[in-house]
Amino acid sequence: MAIEERWFVLYNWNQQQWRKLKMLTRLWREFEEDSGLLAGWLIKGEQTFKKMEQSPTEETSQLAAQLKELTVRKHTFEIFISFLNLWFGMLDNVCCFPES
Fold first, then answer.
1. What is the residue-wise DSSP string for the chain?
2. pLDDT class of 11 with cuts at 50, 70, 90
3. Distance CA 31, CA 24 (A)
4. How far is CA 24 from CA 28, 34, 60, 81, in A?
């Protein structure tokens, strides 16, 4: 391979890595923003669960409200997990991590 061809290959590789780095930077910023939302959501959920634990009840209406709160939190958590799986999939595509 001639030196010009090697420089051309190196230049193209460098451009490709630069595009990946820009994409990775954007993804990382988005992840940081979303992880802050997740942290706040987890803290609020922990506070809610502590309140439930500290004030046990046998009233049907309160038990129903607590069950509804738990169901909503479970569903929201599943959405966050789906988001994380999607985010890690995008990260794998950008970084081209090999399967281990």
1. --HHHHHHHHHHHHHHHHHHHHHHHHHHHHHHHHHHHHHHHHHHHHHHHHHHHHS----HHHHHHHHHHHHHHHHHHHHHHHHHHHHHHHHHHHHTPPP-
2. very high
3. 10
4. 6, 15, 50, 20
Q: What is the pLDDT of residues 14-49, one digit of tens each?
A: 998 898 889 888 888 888 888 888 888 889 889 988
CA angle 72, 77, 82 (to 5 degrees): 130
Instruction: Please check whether residue 20 is in contact with residue 94, taking contact to mean a CB–CB distance below 8 angstroms.
Output: yes
Residues in the chain: 100
The torsion angles phi and psi of 57, rounded to 5 degrees, stand at: -140, 155
User: Tens digit of pLDDT for each residue in 72-83?
Assistant: 988 988 988 888
Burial tier of 20 (Cβ tally within 10 Å: 0-12, 13-18, 19+) = middle
